[in-house]
Amino acid sequence: MKNSVILKSFPNGISVILDGTISFQELLADIGVKFREADGFFKDASVAISIEGRELTEEQEREILDAITQNSRLKILCLMGKDEEKNLKFLGVQSKLNFQNDENSGQFYRGTLKDGASIETEHSIIILGDVCEGSCVYSNKDIVVLGTLTGDVYAGAGGNSNHFVVALNMLPGILQIGDYVYNSQPQKTMRWGFKKPHTVPKIAYTRDGEVQIESITKELLDNFTL
């Protein structure tokens, strides 16, 4: 296993640097050993994972993530992709907003949810992609969309309103937290009818019996409570 798997920490995450010459099955075994050895150091941290060093299929990426979770106490929030701008936005948001610290609190889905697709989970979820119009996400806890949200999202779906929805581009169809539904406003348009771009990450949460949506700022996060 000599240097076939190298772990490097970065803020809120771990880079897993892989040998590109050995077989994938041998590599999986080495990953398991490496994370068992590092378990006392990383403990039960919530982290993003970056995999480097060799080209992988999505199935191989899933097998690697399974090997990590089966051999450590880490809570994997997401698999970092090659979109550097989106990665940086994620790290900025995730460093301020932590999922509730209970067992198996975070899950991730990598890909875009298109019309007719849906996800249901009892846990908090991070979606690495867009949630398109006609798709739905149901979570008993929190929802983070690292992309554009134009579909329907239901956070706190079990009836608990002490949860939130975050999106890099917040344009939801239906947005509900617990029993409260957001009353969306018509989108403002520019001359010739084009919509103004909305690229500032936003958070939706409940306050005074209503769903509020606000831009994510340092001042907001410093005083953010649920």
What does this structure look like?
This protein is of the alpha/beta class and 226 residues long. 21% of the residues lie in helices and 34% in strands. It has four helices and 15 strands. It has helices spanning 24-42, 58-70, 84-94, 218-222; strands at 5-10, 13-18, 46-52, 75-79, 106-110, 118-121, 124-128, 136-139, 143-149, 152-155, 164-170, 175-177, 180-181, 202-207, 210-215. The strands form three sheets. A six-stranded mixed sheet has the order 5-7-9-11-14-15, with helices on one face. Strands 6-8-10-12-13 form a five-stranded mixed sheet, with no helix packed on it. A four-stranded mixed sheet has the order 1-2-3-4. α1 (24-42) packs across α2. The longest helix is centred in the first third of the chain and has 19 residues, at 24-42. The radius of gyration is 19 Å and the shape is elongated. The termini are far apart.
